[in-house]
Amino acid sequence: MRMLLLRTFLVVVLLSDSARSRGRKSRVPCASRDCQCRKVKGKARMTCVWVNRRLPVFHPRDVTYDRVNIANANLTRIPKAAFRNVSTTQLDLSGNLFGASGFNRGAFVGLEARLEVLLLPHCRLATVPTSSISRLRRLATLNLDGNVISVIPRNAFKRNRKLRELRLFQNQLRNIDAKAFRGLARMERLQLAQNRLPALWKGNFRGMRNLTTLDLSGNLLTRIVPGTFSGLNRLKWLDLASNLLTSLTKRMFKGLKQLQYVNLDGNPLTHIGDGAFAVIPRLKYLSLDLANVSRLSPGSFVRLARVKTLIVGDVNRPALPARLFRDLRRLKNLSVLNHRSVFKGLTPELFPAKFGFGRLSVWTAPLRPCNCDVAWIREFNRRGAYVHGYCDGKRPISCQKLTG
């Protein structure tokens, strides 16, 4: 019973503007007579805890809340102007039971002037609450993780032009309108992982000129239409892991001149076109799976002069073609898996003529036989490379540079 009662607590953290400006501690009054207040770590903040499950009634006070936390309170609806007397930068409503009709159109009236962070994960939302959040002109972060949203309609966030981070992790997205993100020029981080997206529209992200991070992992993408990433001139981090992509071409990544991190791990790739990554001149990290790729050539990884980490997954062939890594002059970390016991090992001929093996670290697993006396490992050790990984049974192995 005690634990159940604690779970229903509603926590509100307050921060007094006046105390902040004076630079000394000050007692901040509770927002309601139904709450108990205490100082937080000796700072000019107070934590107020409600034992009631209902939405608290906020009375007008000359107080600015640092954070209002009304999470996991079994709330089913936010009525009109419930926060009219609240001045806060962050509102946490996560874990409530709003469902399809939990927000009145004017639910966030009064929060327009200050609210920057709105947290609505795991609230059983079936749609984006566009009409309710449209008045939040200062909103910078919106978290909609763990809901059951299946569609993002056109202009869903049209009036939230200051959004910098949008999270839709682990929903049921099947479709994103071609103009769903129109107007979000300030967006920096977009999280769309673990949904059910089978495809993206050309220009879906057009206008997001400040986007730096895009996570599309764990969807059902079978192909990337050329032009999908058009206009993402500042994108640095792209995660496409665990989709259904079978082919990679340079048209797919066209325009991503600032991209540094690409994760394609877990895709059933069968074809990597020559120069597929040549249009990403600043790439530093690349992860993919070569297990089902039928043809590899030196052109598959051409112009990857800045790549420092390369993960090629399971290699389902006895050897990799010579000069495959001929342009990887700065490579420091290479991961090669051999779960199918087909791959016989690496050769120096894979690398540039004057490659610096002394800075190379090779991870391989599992290693058969389980010792450092394998011919290819001895050769790499002799050249200064460090080879490590694990054997069957996950017993670690470490093969250092040979001395003497």
From TrEMBL:
Keyword Signal recorded: yes
Full protein name: Uncharacterized protein
Signal sequence extent: 1-21
Keyword check for Transmembrane helix: no
SUPFAM superfamilies given in the database record: L domain-like
Assigned keywords, A-Z: Leucine-rich repeat, Repeat, Signal
Native organism: Ridgeia piscesae (Tubeworm)
InterPro entries for this protein: Leu-rich_rpt, Leu-rich_rpt_typical-subtyp, LRR_dom_sf, SLRP
PANTHER family: AGAP008170-PA, INSULIN-LIKE GROWTH FACTOR-BINDING PROTEIN COMPLEX ACID LABILE SUBUNIT
Lineage: Eukaryota, Metazoa, Spiralia, Lophotrochozoa, Annelida
One GO term describing the cellular component: extracellular space
Pfam families in alphabetical order: LRR_8
